[in-house]
Design brief:
It comes from Candidatus Actinomarina minuta. With 411 residues, the chain is of the alpha/beta class. It has 15 helices and 13 strands. The structure holds zinc ion (ZN). Zinc ion (ZN) binds next to α3.
Length: 411
């Protein structure tokens, strides 16, 4: 049944589940190596940076997501090899570029017309992207360590949109599309009854849910937890994740969905509990530790970071004021820098003090001072600034924290 002897994403996922912790499964390199795995005669999993699922009815295809435009040539080749000659539908699980930018290339490579189906907020997202193209380019560069800012300025908009639920029949299978808020407000998950398969999009990505990204619009920790719980009620045999390998087995699928759900609900409940008692954001950050029951290979802070999910809940329910008065209207960075230099006596004394902090591995404390000092005397403080932030990057597990600390220092 398998068209590829080497690549077996189901075996790969079993291997991952045996590990107590997990490396970063969503590395960008995944996008450069596309594989197709045949689940049945009518359904295949395509590994990509953003995964793709493809249904086949004779030579007509239905795709769930399209991957990144950069890998579309490989995807098109795999689809043709598998016997697809036209694509009737594409369903977007959400509007992120790693799931939608392949659409234009794929649609153009096949005959006939293709209808794109998505949640109605995908359209709003594409409109919003036009307003923030510069910013999105910069955060992509920072997050993925790219040589320059990159962000597309054109998107394949959906032809059919829906708001809560949408049903579609394809090759005698009923597909149920359901809207849920999690990483985005435009997300869809899909269940196919004939294949007993659940297509989660980025609601499941083999690492701690990406609900706290420091540079993105609001994400929804608690709603995400609720959605995963609802998904688990399908009791499905397959879970096709947005990133990382395919999962098979009802018991495993249910366990992964419920563990992830419980983890998110635990985070939201506990942040709200402390907010209601009057704790500041920083106090919550130092108070909350993820319980051991959530030390799972698929809940590691590999992409997002546990502490960022705390920020996300805080922002959703409490706005951006941190609860620490000096953070409400902080002075100019240069003014703080001059204050540190005055305290030390002069620039060189402050540099020596920073060196002593580095020697005692107090990188986080040193980072606060060096940001301010650098804004006063960039020549003197640039080397130590780089050293401090690269040390911080080394200590972090999440791609997002690493990306921010390495930005402009990784040469
Ligand atoms: Zn994604």
């Amino acid at each position: 049944m398998n068209t590829d002897n080497q690549y077996n994403p189901i075996e790969l996922s079993k291997e991952y589940l045996k590990k107590s912790t997990l490396g970063n499964q969503v590395s960008i390199e995944q996008g450069f190596n596309v594989e197709l795995y045949e689940v049945s005669n009518n359904l295949a999993f395509i590994k990509n940076f953003g995964n793709i699922a493809v249904f086949k009815n004779d030579s007509t295809g239905l795709l769930i997501d399209t991957g990144m435009g950069v890998s579309s040539m490989q995807v098109i080749e795999k689809l043709k090899e598998w016997g697809i000659s036209n694509i009737e539908y594409i369903i977007y699980t959400h509007g992120h570029v790693d799931h939608v930018t392949g659409a234009e290339y794929i649609v153009n490579a096949f005959e006939g017309t293709t209808k794109i189906i998505a949640h109605e907020n995908v359209t709003k997202r594409f409109d919003r992207y036009k307003k923030t193209i510069g910013y999105n380019g910069i955060i992509n560069q920072r997050q993925f360590g790219l040589p320059s800012p990159v962000f597309p300025n054109d998107f394949a908009y959906p032809d059919i949109t829906y708001s809560d639920e949408y049903e579609l029949e394809f090759n005698e299978s009923i597909m149920i599309l359901t809207h849920g808020k999690g990483e985005t407000d435009d997300a869809t998950y899909i269940y196919s009854n004939k294949d007993d398969a659940l297509f989660t999009g980025d609601f499941f990505i083999w690492s701690l849910p990406n609900a706290g990204n420091p540079s993105k619009a609001q994400r929804y920790v608690g709603f995400w937890g609720e959605v995963l719980k609802k998904m688990s009620e399908y009791n499905s045999e397959y879970l096709f994740p947005g990133h990382g390998p395919l999962i098979k087995g009802k018991k495993t699928v249910k366990e992964l969905l419920l563990d992830t759900s419980n983890c998110l609900l635990w985070i939201e409940e506990n942040v709200l509990n402390l907010m209601n008692k009057g704790y500041s954001l920083r106090e919550i950050q130092s108070e909350l530790v993820l319980p051991e029951e959530f030390f799972k290979p698929y809940l590691v802070s590999a992409y997002d970071d546990f502490s960022f999910l705390i920020n996300s809940v805080w922002r959703q329910y409490g706005g951006w004021y941190s609860g620490t008065p000096s953070e409400l209207k902080p002075p100019k960075l240069e003014d703080i820098g001059r204050t540190y230099i005055d305290m030390a006596g002069n620039d060189n004394n402050l540099l020596k003090f920073l060196e002593s902090l580095v020697n005692s591995q107090k990188y986080r404390e040193a980072s606060v001072i060096v940001d301010a000092a650098y804004s006063v005397n960039s020549d003197l403080f640039s080397d130590i600034k780089k050293e401090i932030f690269l040390k911080l990057a080394e200590e972090e597990s999440s791609l997002m924290a690493k990306g921010i600390y390495k930005f402009n220092h990784d040469s």
